[in-house]
Amino acid sequence: MYRYTEFDAAFVAERNRQFRAQVNRRIDGSLTEDEFKPLRLMNGLYLQLHAYMLRVAIPYGTLNSAQMRQLAMIAERWDKGYGHFTTRQNIQYNWPALRDVPDMLDALAEVGMHAIQTSGNTIRNVTADHFAGAAADEIADPRPVAELIRQWSTDHPEFQFLPRKFKIAVTGAEADRAVTRAHDIGIRTVQRDGETGYEIIVGGGLGRTPMIGKVLRSFLPEADLLPYLEATVSVWNLLGRRDNKYKSRIKITVHEHGIEEISRLVEDRFAILKPSFTGVDQAHLARIREDFAPPAFVTRPVDAYTRAYDSDPVFRAWADTNLSAHRAPGYAIAQISLKAHGATPGDASADQMRVIADIAEQFGHDEIRISHEQNIVLPHVHRADLPEIHARLKARGLATANIGKISDIIACPGMDYCALATARSIPIAQDIATRFDALKLEHDIGDLKIKISGCINACGHHHLGHIGILGLDRAGVENYQITLGGDHTEQAAVGERTGPGFSAEAILPAIERLVETYLAQRTGPEEPFIDTYRRVGMAPFKEALYGPEARRSRAA
Amino acid sequence: MTRRFTPKVVTGNALLEGDVVYLTVDDQWTRDLAAAEVLDDEAHAQLRLLDAQARQNEIVGAYLADVKPGAAGPEPAHFREAFRMRGPSNYAHGKQADTR
Ligand code: HEM
Ligand code: SF4
Known about the structure:
The structure holds 2 protein chains of 2 kinds.
Chain A: H1 6-27, H2 33-42, E1 45-47, E2 52-57, E3 62-63, H3 65-78, E4 82-85, E5 90-93, H4 101-110, E6 127-128, H5 143-153, E7 168-171, E8 185-192, E9 195-202, E10 214-221, H6 225-239, H7 250-257, H8 259-273, H9 280-291, H10 303-311, H11 313-322, E11 323-325, E12 331-336, E13 347-349, H12 350-363, E14 368-370, E15 376-382, H13 386-395, E16 410-411, H14 426-439, H15 442-445, E17 450-453, E18 467-474, E19 477-484, E20 496-497, E21 502-503, H16 507-521, H17 529-536, H18 539-546, H19 548-555
Parallel strand pairs in A: 6-7, 7-8, 16-17, 17-18
Antiparallel strand pairs in A: 1-2, 2-5, 3-14, 4-5, 4-13, 8-9, 9-10, 11-12, 12-15, 14-15, 18-19, 19-20, 19-21
Chain B: E1 8-14, E2 20-23, E3 29-30, H1 42-53, E4 59-70, E5 73-76, H2 79-86, H3 95-98
Antiparallel strand pairs in B: 1-2, 1-4, 2-3, 4-5
Bound molecules: protoporphyrin IX containing FE (HEM) and iron/sulfur cluster.
Residues 46, 48, 53, 86-88, 92, 164, 167, 205-207, 249, 412-413, 418, 420, 457-459, 461 of chain A line the site of protoporphyrin IX containing FE.
């Protein structure tokens, strides 16, 4: 993976030194909060409901075991012994004390990590397919490009005071596991006439005006990437609405000016910028690519795997749900669910982090990924080692076999932590997971994505859930609105509202009625929820939620 | 007819730990809502808020939160303030842990 150069290390050390001084000046009273706030946000430090929160970038979701162990150490020494992995491939610490934050940042720098540009109106942590470099359906590893973009965008003088935050996601595969269509810019690696290039998607985003991104350029040659991105961001930097933060994202700019007009402006700007990119970036990209060379895969028998698969039903269930196809024969991609039934989605204890680090070091070519679904991925494991890996995970409560199932819920922190929340989301996720586990229906229901946000900002991607849940405050009471038919894949779609929301007590029964309706309506177990919904439409689900029978059972 | 003023307390987060704090009658910061000064008069509430906001090197983000009278002192009027008073619901962290 990418190794920090001396330049990178010096840059981060200098930034940390400055921030330490800024924290000291805040504590001794020489900086007011108004002066300090932009400085702390530049370094990933938020103030939430009960405490500060430090958001640490995990660029393109890739970690090695030393980094994971350091995250565990930080969780134990300066937090409450756990960390929260988010949909943007970051880790958040929910309880740091202000005085300790500079030490935490120094500890992160020791393993080449930081919190720069995890907040504020800058180009944020660039996210990528969490199966990068491993997926069987991959055209090219997206991470070298993500790293190039990170270096180009970090402290880019033109892009430190953008109209609003700017999020970029990159994928190198056919299947879109990086939700590229819900980002300000999504980059999809594509091939045309044997040449590799990019499809550039612009203006996607969630929040209060969810939009699916539009294609800005269907094929961009590889070498044109940075000048083209620079052109796009700078067009928006000038046009973007700084007068109204709800209209400032590029999705609104694209909506207001139209994709044709934006495309024309970008192409004009690109023509001017292109000559100033003399190819240095491409030479640099080639060097970065060397750092992402695939590990040395070996050929070994997989008998141990087959034996365990045939004899141990618990292992088999885990293998069937949590493994994905790897490009190398004999290998698999293993997902470690951070969604044990009833647990907080995305949380991992320091102990669990260390177990994962040990497994990755011993069996996984020292690679760990964080997925936007708030799970952990071991991208390169040999099938022969899987029984041992599974046993170790099981001993730490990390072997839940539910990837992609109804309890594999994305939930934002909601009103348990977040100062912007209008309702809680974590307890709703806990209730749903616990209930369907008790019903033993999870595997029968099959693939079904539930995503929950605690306010309209949509950090929990609720618009993209097959079932989306949005927590609101209705006259001083928590109220949950349901959307159906959202999709986070290459067929990205924004879900449609079913109607009036449900109270915290009524939301779980409502979800149960939706699932019963699906089970009754599907052609068979091979038709997943989303396909049934697309075939039969909203009507039967609406009936289940609001029809006479639902009213009767509510009155009872 | 003028609307009745909902009683308020001044609240914010402690600068160093980020803990939820409330202003008392004698200008202390307490972590216990029941010990906070209840403000029944709008003009007085605004003055108390200004006082609190001036104490930049003790707290962050002071504001007025609605309360209702309770047996042991003021109680939160809205669920957000109830969570702030208690801590998160997924772990016994925050105030609920400190006051046990
Ligand atoms: C202190 C906690 C947080 C704050 C203050 C916060 C704030 C926000 C705001 C204001 C937006 C809306 C942006 C816009 O529409 O312009 C947003 C969007 C988003 N946030 Fe958060 N967020 C927080 C935590 C999280 C967490 C924990 C995650 C991951 C689980 C996350 C991931 C996202 C994503 C994916 C979006 C939507 C994509 C987009 O349109 O930008 N955020 N956040
Ligand atoms: S969706 Fe709202 S409640 Fe949830 S983390 Fe984002 S800002 Fe907070």
